[in-house]
Polygalacturonase (Capsicum annuum), 504 residues
Amino acid sequence: MSPLVIVPLLFSLFLNLSLAENTINVQNYGAKSNGKTDSSKAFVNAWAVACSSTSPTTIYVPRGNYLIRTAYFNGQTCKSKAINIRIDGTLLAPSDYNVIGNAENWIKFEKVTGVSIYGGTFDGQGSGLWACKNSHKNCPKGTTALTFYDSNNIILSGVTTQNSQMFHILIDTCHNVKLQGVKISAPGNSPNTDGIHVKLSTGVSIMNSHIGTGDDCISIGPGNSNLWIEGIACGPGHGISIGSLGWKIEESGVQNVTVKTVTFTETTNGVRVKTWARPSNGFVRHVLFQHIVMINVQNPIIIDQNYCPNHEPCPRQGSGIQISDITYQDIHGTSATKTAVKLDCSKTNPCSSIKLEDLNLSYKDSELKEVSEYVDSNEDVAKQSVSGDSEESEGSGSNCDYRDKDSLSVPYLSRNDKMRHEMWFCVNSKPSCFGLKEFCLITGLNCSSYPSESKMKKGKKTFQLTMDYLKKKSDLKKQKEVYDEKQKASYALFGFSWHSWYLP
């Protein structure tokens, strides 16, 4: 045999032996794949061996079902900074929810660095606990299926988690975490089963994943920065939420978050920011929601700074969370309710620099409604409605500061792409404004063509009703002469859009 052939063969054999020496099979440490024998100790023992290794190590879980009561993996004393866990089987939580129902975590990694999990299914078997909670009995709180705490350089790839008692995946106080190709599933009526919850972490990316649960697909808690979420299919569930925030007075803020290329299917919310109405020094800023499809979503776009899920007792104070620099861009699809955009900002710390660009959201009911059906009957809401420039606007009641137009201005393009004018709205009659670009928020109208004469007349009526709310909002009075009758009629159509919003 030629020496040129022998050398590669020897190298390949050496490489395979090296890999074999650094691969730990959990079955060699007593794990049973029958789904009945508790294999918790075997998994922990396999981890201890991998942790003590000075070279990269792989923990291998063969096909089969492995019952895990609870398993905690601590990496504080680990010598290895590269542990791969390759799972071909399914890890099962006890079917009796009382066994781990009061444990905070089912499987937890703490103070680990360089851990990567590839494949496998984590089955929380939480249906019994959900039934208990839905019947309003005295039940355990429930446990989170998979937790990473105080850890760095983590990868989850091709992992499936299903039917967790509570949260499926928790990323807490971590840095540089990548989740890709993750699948999370639980019924839409399973309580508190958030897909992925992130808190107090930096550099987290969640990509190309499918999440359907009974709560938020992804929830972003306090203290997060530099989050990237892309390529997500969400539904069922409560959408992607920043919050809830503001429960504590001293609370870290959320900043630099990108959510893009997401499809929401029949979720209760699309993209949401939610804060409690109580004092807090927290904030939400520098957030981009981009390239998003809504399919029959109840609340496609919502900022809720009076968040109180159980209705009482509610704080009923002004939220201290300052929300600023939020951009909604290229969001289209269908709303399951008449209110496609709801911006319920804090009265004491109103939102600022909120930008909506290229929106096309239609209500599934094609019948055109009167504007009064889209306006909240609350008197305060009517007083605080929206402000914009128009011939009917008189007086000087608005507090919006438009002097810094370079930073706030977003041009409005009419549907024929010929008329270009700025349209500004003011939230809570405070110095907090946002502009619209190529905006089309419709209720039964087709944005691709001009409206019929009858619809245009109804639009004029709507526009007049809108202006009745705006008589004292005239900071843009100097620009009113640019509106001739034709332009005014064009914008009248969009009067429906303005009042299908709920602007507190």
